[in-house]
């Protein structure tokens, strides 16, 4: 015999929602207490001053979050909630601003900054990557956001990262890329290097190339992601120069890129490391 379905009223269900909301809020308050203790442990570990941002840890947390997610709540929402939680807990440890290069379009960059860092962290727009990098350089623990556009990029802004004491690329956002990401603009995060916290899955290099040509562009190996800009510095007479920002996955070297370019009569005259970041994690590739 079929049992009649148990009756549950709207107010019972709302009481459940209230119980869950209160539990989530209390857990967030408990999280703040852990952060207070974590700040002290980080200091004794020698990480005093500068930014509290730990890109490797965040990349790992965001990957696990999206992998375990299921149910009605859209992944975009869950990701943005955790981005705000983590970015704000970073901020309460050591206040910082996000200096964003809006020269490629303000709305898309602002969306990216707000998605990844929320509204408590101040957003400082700059017209050009160099200005954003200069603001980061002048700060103790601020972050810069610059579009990691793979297409032609105007001026080679990454040369401002070359000096040994200049800021460096420390992360690439979104931590989890996917085709329909609501803040899907790939951006580099630039900061003063964080002691003992660099993640080197992908290493980023500034290359100075003489003898640049369409053939040389085609010769760049497919494992390398490259942004190319015209090089204003005069190269040897009659040879075109280019500035490249090349991202290499673990196990790949600048020497391999140099050898491939040499096949196309292009010579790398200088190569400078300008940072590194966690491996790009693409959700659609995992079938998740
Ligand atoms: O794990 C840390 O080092 C923290 O500071 C905690 C925390 C977090 O809120 O979970 C905040 C900032 C870091 O970028 C990474 C994670």
From TrEMBL:
It is an enzyme of class 5 (isomerase). Its EC number is 5.4.99.5. GO terms for biological process: chorismate metabolic process. It comes from the Bacteria. GO terms for molecular function: chorismate mutase activity. Residues 4-97 form the Chorismate mutase domain. This is chorismate mutase. It comes from Xanthobacter tagetidis. The lineage of its organism: Bacteria, Pseudomonadati, Pseudomonadota, Alphaproteobacteria, Hyphomicrobiales.
